[in-house]
Design goal:
alpha/beta; six-stranded mixed beta sheet; two-stranded antiparallel ribbon; 8 strands
């Protein structure tokens, strides 16, 4: 749908003033140049020119509303009667099946409304409502009423009615503003694409890609190079391949109404489960809005063979890749949980294997939150040595936008007191920023705070009594624990000065020999291809290459 939106926006400004929907070569070339320019500037970020977006869009909305008001009074003031629902009923009575099929083209009047769902990730609900009801919606209604008034007197200009309805004296300024507004609208869709893919990646529903934050102040402004160039290539291919704005319009209409219909169906779950409303209210909402959207959806399906198939094919491919990646990731994590090693078992084998201790801190990354990950056990059995301080780090992505910093690190001690082994579960929301440079420092500080954590009030009372001469056995034990805690902190600081290394698994996931052909194809071919061509886990976590230890392991799922 995003791909079709970009092509539709850039194609229509150069084709609506023509007498046919087939776009000439020079128009295709101009549209391609603008597309390349828009995508080539994405790495700069929108914060540099973002201050121009609002004035351009406001100027565009005021411009089309002014032209609409002019056309209403100049051509047919009676067009305001179309606001009455009677004319909808009368329209279908007179046109019959042809009128029903025309809904597939009328739905294009509502395109752009689906982008508000993406805008909710960057703006508040109140600001979107005020902007839409107070400015966008009235301006669009006036623009379409003015175009209808013009067509009522100039029915021969149907294919290019929008630009033909613009007075000649202001045609060039309107054309320039339309081009700029199209670029701004496409920029909003591209930014929303980056944001959605970033959230999907955090939820393990999309392969690891490089995410560049283009603004130091606004965390929502990101840039994903791989997605940017793939979108550009697809847009250029469709523009050159279709060369027909009517076909692109059919594809766009079906994509938009499908998004709206799916959103309405999902609202049933939101109303009944999240808002805890009665199921009847949720059902009533779906019936009312779903009936309208199903009417448009049915009309758009009639144009499935005229371009409507394209968004369905693209959506099916993307959905399949995301599902396969999610399936492979779940299978990989399940294998790690099933093959994790007990810490007691590893400690018992330590004296027999002659494990040596190496100065420094080792951060062992895995998804295992209990026990020892199979990757680390594999490393120790083949190379019997590990660092002075071991910290098993597990990063979890939660289905919430942000996790408070105070609740991000959860540190616990594992193993006997004489062996400094720690486990840290780090939780991120899908909109949290992962600062790889500050992560190591924050983690060491959290473990240090964990070791320095005050004893309970009851224990502190006992220590105070011991300091005043009431020396009991309990007070001596607590003072010894405080001394041990201080020694652990000193050992942690010394180990940090000796160096910090990162251990991560370099796994190869393959299917079992007894698996069915479909599973072998999904895991060995598709998931393997995605894993080989996505960013490595070390690069995604920002781990410095000089301090990286990768442990190879084959996972059979």
């Amino acid at each position: 749908m995003i791909l079709i939106r970009l092509i539709k926006d850039h194609g229509k400004i150069f084709s609506q003033f023509l007498t046919c929907s087939y776009v000439p070569d020079y128009t295709v070339a101009i549209a391609c140049v603008i597309l390349v320019g828009v995508f080539a500037l994405q790495h700069c970020g929108t914060h540099r020119i973002g201050f121009l977006f609002s004035p351009i869009l406001i100027a565009w909305l005021l411009c089309i509303s002014g032209v609409g008001i002019y056309n209403i009074f100049h051509w047919n003031p009676d067009v305001v009667k179309a606001l009455s629902p009677y004319y909808i009923y009368n329209f279908f009575i007179k046109t019959g099946t042809a009128g029903w099929s025309s809904l597939g083209g009328i739905v294009l009047c509502a395109t752009g409304a689906e982008a508000m769902f993406a805008d909710l990730g960057h703006f508040s609900e109140l600001s979107v409502r005020i902007a839409f009801t107070g400015l966008v919606y009235p301006c669009l209604v006036l623009a379409y009423m003015g175009e209808a008034a013009y067509l009522s007197k100039n029915r021969g200009d149907l294919q290019s009615s929008f630009y033909k309805a613009v007075p000649d004296a202001i045609f060039l300024p309107v054309f320039i503003i339309a081009t700029l507004a199209t670029v701004v609208g496409s920029q909003a869709i591209i930014s929303a694409t980056f944001s959605i893919i970033s959230q999907c990646r955090a939820l393990n529903c999309f392969p690891r890609v490089k995410i560049v934050h283009t603004s130091n102040n606004i965390h929502g402004q990101i840039y994903i190079p791989e997605v940017n160039w793939v979108l550009m290539i697809l847009c250029l291919a469709v523009v050159v391949g279709f060369r027909d704005t009517a076909t692109i319009g059919n594809a766009y209409g079906l994509a938009v109404i499908t998004v709206m219909l799916v959103t309405t169906l999902l609202m049933f779950l939101i109303i009944s489960t999240v808002w805890n409303k009665h199921v009847f209210l949720a059902f009533l909402f779906v019936v009312i809005f779903g009936f309208v959207e199903l009417s448009y959806f049915d009309a758009c399906l009639a144009k499935l063979h005229k371009g409507g198939w394209f968004p369905l094919v693209v959506s099916a491919v993307v959905l399949s890749l995301m599902s396969i990646w999610h399936y492979g990731t779940i299978k990989k994590q399940a294998f790690e949980l099933e093959n994790k090693v007990s810490l007691d078992c590893l400690l018992r084998l330590g004296p027999c294997m002659g494990i040596a201790r190496v100065p420094g801190v080792c951060l062992v990354y895995s998804h295992v939150t209990s026990g020892v990950p199979p990757m680390f056990a594999h490393f120790v059995t083949n190379f019997p040595a590990f660092h002075q301080i071991l910290i098993f780090v597990s990063i979890q992505s939660l289905i919430v936008p942000k996790v408070p910093v105070s609740d991000r690190f959860h540190v616990s001690r594992i193993g006997p007191p004489e062996l400094p082994l720690f486990r840290c579960v780090v939780r991120y929301g899908y909109k949290d920023i992962r600062d790889s440079y500050a992560f190591e420092t924050q983690l060491i500080e959290k473990i240090s705070e964990f070791l320095k954590r005050d004893l309970s009030s009851e224990q502190m009372v006992v220590i105070e009594q011991s300091l005043h001469g009431a020396k009991t056995r309990r007070s001596r034990e607590l003072r010894f624990q405080c001394q041990e805690s201080s020694e652990d902190v000193n050992e942690l600081m010394e180990a940090e000065e000796a160096g910090v290394v990162y251990m991560i698994g370099h796994t190869c996931v393959i299917s079992n020999e007894a698996s069915c052909i479909l599973k072998k194809f999904v895991i060995n071919v598709v998931y393997g291809f995605l894993r080989r061509n996505s960013r490595s886990p070390a690069a995604s976590l920002g781990i410095p290459h000089a301090a990286l230890i990768e442990v190879g392991r084959v996972y059979r799922v």
